[in-house]
Specification:
By secondary structure, the chain is of the alpha/beta class. It contains 9 helices and 15 strands.
Length: 308
């Protein structure tokens, strides 16, 4: 196991220490390597207030991503995070183009499921107080201090209030219900809040307490519990734990999104890309070009001034 993973004594529940530390966490995989390289370059150029950057990858991708490792950036093998009974295979049903994670203790899981599990699991291995999650298809364009996620000893929890009460959010409602089931929350206690965004923060101690609570309720490993349903969101689980179980302790809420994301549709032309960047809100410091849309990484580099 990586030597950076050291035991750290917990502080008073709900509050950060007087001088809290932060780490950026990115879950990635081989097809996103060049996007992740760009993320690393823009973090190094624009981001302050983070003691370390963890990149979480499948075992077979470790050697590739080690090119990005340095004294402030560690590549973490998922085998050091997740139970050994969860095994990755090439999926014959996709003509071996995709990966699938199988075990006798969970549903069959895809890469996006396992990336979420890695993000939860890193809390038990990292030493920093605040974990800041940033996808590998993000690039920082403006200076950003990670202290924006802290206030008066508390951590900023991204929350958009009441949006799940409206139409068009059925999948989010399923994720919220499944989060409640994992956390042992009465089915009658329904949340209408959305906790999902890019570039958000969690309190490390709260994540480890959440996992312990899940295991206490169900008498099983937390990976088994969460992985027993294929429709889940790590952000929903954490958000509902903080608000519905802890009553918001140790956190303050914020709905502003620090990253402007192009979620769906076609790849942007040069002019469309420039317009997208120009439309960034004052608080937004980064952009996200969802990798499955296919925006050329060389174009992104050129348009943000980092060369082809």
């Amino acid at each position: 196991m990586n030597s950076r993973f050291v035991p750290v004594a917990d502080v008073e529940p709900g509050m950060l220490p007087n001088t809290p530390t932060a780490a950026i966490v990115t879950a990635s995989y081989a097809p996103d390597f060049e996007r992740c390289r760009l993320l690393c370059e823009t973090i190094d150029r624009h981001v302050s207030g983070a003691a370390h950057h963890y990149i979480l990858v499948e075992h077979r991708d470790v050697a590739l991503f080690r090119q990005l490792q340095n004294n402030r950036r560690t590549i973490v093998d998922e085998r050091d995070l997740l139970p050994r009974w969860l095994h990755a295979f090439d999926d014959p049903l996709s003509l071996f183009r995709r990966r699938i994670w199988l075990s006798l203790k969970t549903m069959p899981l895809r890469g996006w499921h396992v990336q979420q599990l890695r993000r939860i699991a890193i809390a038990a291995r990292a030493s920093e107080d605040v974990l800041i999650f940033c996808d590998s298809d993000v690039a920082f364009l403006r200076p950003f201090d990670c202290g924006a996620f802290r206030r008066n000893g508390k951590v900023r929890l991204f929350r958009r209030d009441g949006v799940l009460a409206g139409s068009g959010h059925e999948e989010h409602r399923i994720w919220s219900r499944n989060a409640g089931a994992a956390l042992g929350i009465d089915e009658a206690v329904v949340s209408t809040h959305d906790y999902i965004s890019t570039l958000i923060a969690w309190r490390r101690e709260t994540v480890t307490a959440m996992c312990a609570e899940i295991e206490k309720i169900h008498g099983r490993n937390w990976v088994q519990v969460i992985g027993s349903a294929r429709k889940f969101s790590e952000c929903m689980i954490y958000g509902r734990y903080v608000d519905s179980v802890l009553g918001g302790a140790g956190h303050f809420h914020g709905s502003e999104e620090f990253c402007r994301v192009h979620w769906t549709g076609e790849a942007l032309s040069d002019d469309e890309f420039r317009s997208f960047v120009a439309a960034m809100a004052p608080e937004q410091v980064a952009i996200g070009m969802q990798s499955f849309i296919g925006t050329d990484i060389g174009r992104i580099r050129r348009l943000i001034g980092l060369g082809a």
